[in-house]
Amino acid sequence: MQERSDSNRISRRDFLGTAAVVGAGAILGGASRALGGAAAETATTTMPTRAFGKTGVNVSILSLGGIFNTIDNQLLLRQALQMGVTYWDTAESYGGGKSETGFGKYLGANSDDRKKIFLVTKSGAARTKSLEASLDRLQTDYVDLFFLHGISKPDSLNDDVKAWAEKMKKAGKIKFFGFSSHRDMSACLQKAAQVGWVDGVMLTFNFRTMVLDEGGDGRYKKALDAAHKAGIGMTAMKTQAKGMRASNAEAEQALLDAFTAKKFSLQQAALKVVWGDERFSCICSKMPNMTILKANVAAALDKTELSAADHAALRTFAEATASDYCAGCSDICDHAVDGQMPVCDVMRYVMYYNAYDDKHEARELFAALPADVRNRLTRVDYSLAESRCPQGIPIAERMKLAEDLLA
Ligand code: SF4
């Protein structure tokens, strides 16, 4: 997907078109109304794009995260494309391949749309056979970007992986190579900036990580700068910055009050704060229904910038609820318990269960942990890890919660 297509250019009249009209204009009109009032008046009508690092490709600033039932939501895929959401993200592990199958179902029936889409998939390993299986499911000959999925160690970016990526590029199966990461992102990013053959990355980035960094010591900010300077395209994920509990009602109410006057939802404000960081080309968001798709597109089209007071409100919220959010600095806590425990991963699974309502996936991920880890979960002394945790998370308490929810 080099340039946005003409189908993404919607006239102002279409954009505000009558609800009776079914088509891109009406859809974007709905997106506009999802912001409402004054904010809608400041909206553009074309999905903005940004350069993706030094790849030479421009991508839509909003990406369709495919971790939902894409097989039965073909209309939503079409509507996302019509609304200018041309960066589509999936993984071989999403739904055990079903997410890719759903994207493939769409591409198989709409082959003319393939070139409009910047298609990304991921796998936990650099294996030709698994990439070919992904391409079969996706009903395409190539992906625009292949991510090694969820790396947490810089040595995942080794010479073997480099050689494989080059081979796959030469074979025309991938255009660009990179990785996604949830934890120890700073170390992985620094390595990526250093090796020079990583084209793109997808990372947790949100108003919390902006305020509190990863590890609370500025390492993430430095790593992001290094990666940006090296021309690595960056996509943000987990931009809603949800915590481990289902809600933080009191603190959220204060934030709600701050954004009500602007007609933003908290979710839209969280997106806008990330788009405010030009180092990131795109936000990847799970959008399993039209309500969320329209709201996110509306936020992308709206040109209102967040004020200093808005940023201050987000900062206050991030600080007040820090102990509910795991920042992914697993080098700090994984080794601060006897026999090692994947504390950071377990925290993330609790977050998936409680805040993202991905209960099935959360349980599956938890079940995939070694039995020894699951059995010892609440029998370990976490006091040292708790004393070092920059977020001040009551780790033992959260591990108990994990056992109650996920075991
Ligand atoms: S539990 Fe604390 S120390 Fe461990 S990864 Fe999360 S934020 Fe970092």
TrEMBL record:
Transmembrane segments: none annotated. Gene3D superfamilies: NADP-dependent oxidoreductase domain (3.20.20.100). Pfam families: Aldo_ket_red (PF00248), TAT_signal (PF10518). Residues 76-255 form the NADP-dependent oxidoreductase domain. One of its GO terms (molecular function) is oxidoreductase activity. InterPro entries: AKR, AKR2_Oxidoreductase, NAD(P)_OxRdtase_dom_sf, NADP_OxRdtase_dom, TAT_signal, TAT_signal_bac_arc. PROSITE patterns: TAT. This is NADP-dependent oxidoreductase domain-containing protein. It comes from marine sediment metagenome.
